[in-house]
Amino acid sequence: MEDLIRVENLRKEFPVQKSFLDQLFAGKEKGFVHAVDDVTFGIKKGEVLGLAGESGSGKSTTGRLLIRLLDPTSGNIYFDGENLADKSPKEMQTFRSKMQVVFQDPNSSLSPRMRVGDAIGHPLKIHTDLGVEERKRKVMELMERVGLSPAEFLYYKYPHQLSGGQSQRVVLARALVTNPEFVVADEPIAMADVSVRAMILELMKELKEEFDLTYLFVTHDLSTAKYICDRIAIMYLGRIVEIGNTRELFDHPHHPYTKALLAAVPVPDPTQRRTEEIPRGEIPSAIDPPAGCHFHPRCRYATEACSKGRPPMREVSPGHFSACILD
Ligand code: SF4
């Protein structure tokens, strides 16, 4: 099957002012945060690709680049064969309704002054020429579908009058109201109460089938990714270090960083946790990332070669790729 979304050699650098001492010794006023560092991957139509890693790994920035909420520094972003990377804001209008995003915090992505019905219907006002009554009918239908029931009651509520689970359903409905093909879900349940997380995930799965959606599911939580994703890509300091089928990645992780993330997943029996896999130290700064394999200062298997060059991505089993020199 063809990729619906494909990114090639994607990079995003954010300029930052260097400290006085750095300016003095390095002689440069500005540095760059290498948020996304030469990333290449594809997402097939109907697939859920998880993008997992610690905070600061570049996963949310990658999600925003895919739908051009951010402009890439370089690289290509293909949506259904069209390169979005060099489209102007005006040209991007054509694609906006086909690509939507669900952010982590529903409260900060909903206007406190906009009623629920108006918030969900707002994209229809921008992207379609449907009349007021038709928009309202479509919004009410969708509200019932995502569990915002009774819709005629909740339609006139303000965000502060909703529960956390209801707010997240509003955000989902707003993302789906224009019948998009691709949705970036950026930590969509991270702010939800434990009791509603499973319900929102289940709803997202059902909506995917019903609306024929393709998801990029950004998360720091591998147990959530396991539940919903067909494949998972692991990011570390702006690079994808491993990508493969979810089952394969859980059963046969290859990259030491993936093993570390898996070892950190809570298990019912803490004595079974493989604490020796958990890496030492914190994730380094993306302004001056370590040379070679970015993971080498924290990797228990690192050799001299690891700090010399970037390890190439290679296929370690069918459809399973890892950027590590280990056999
Ligand atoms: Fe560790 Fe070297 Fe593999 Fe990087 S390339 S993960 S440093 S063994």
Provide tags for this entry.
327 residues, alpha/beta, Rossmann fold, eight-stranded mixed β-sheet, four-stranded antiparallel β-sheet, 12 helices, 33% helix, binds iron/sulfur cluster
Overview of this structure, please?
33% of the residues lie in helices and 24% in strands. Strands 6-7-8-3-9-10-12-11 form an eight-stranded mixed β-sheet, with helices on both faces. Strands 2-1-4-5 form a four-stranded antiparallel β-sheet. The chain is an alpha/beta fold. It has a domain at 1-92 and 220-265 and 277-327: P-loop containing nucleotide triphosphate hydrolases (Rossmann fold), CATH 3.40.50. The protein has helices at residues 20-26, 59-66, 89-96, 106-109, 116-127, 132-145, 151-154, 164-176, 194-211, 222-228, 246-251, 256-263, and strands at residues 3-17, 30-44, 48-52, 74-79, 82-83, 99-102, 182-186, 214-219, 231-236, 239-245, 314-317, 320-322. It is built from twelve helices and twelve strands. It is globular, with a radius of gyration of 21 Å. The model has no long low-confidence stretch (mean pLDDT 91). The structure holds iron/sulfur cluster (SF4). Iron/sulfur cluster binds next to loops.
Number of strands: 12
CATH homologous superfamily classification of the domain at 1-92 and 220-265 and 277-327: P-loop containing nucleotide triphosphate hydrolases
Q: In the CATH classification, which architecture of the domain at 1-92 and 220-265 and 277-327 applies? A: 3-Layer(aba) Sandwich
- Uncertain segments: none
Strand order of the largest sheet: 6-7-8-3-9-10-12-11
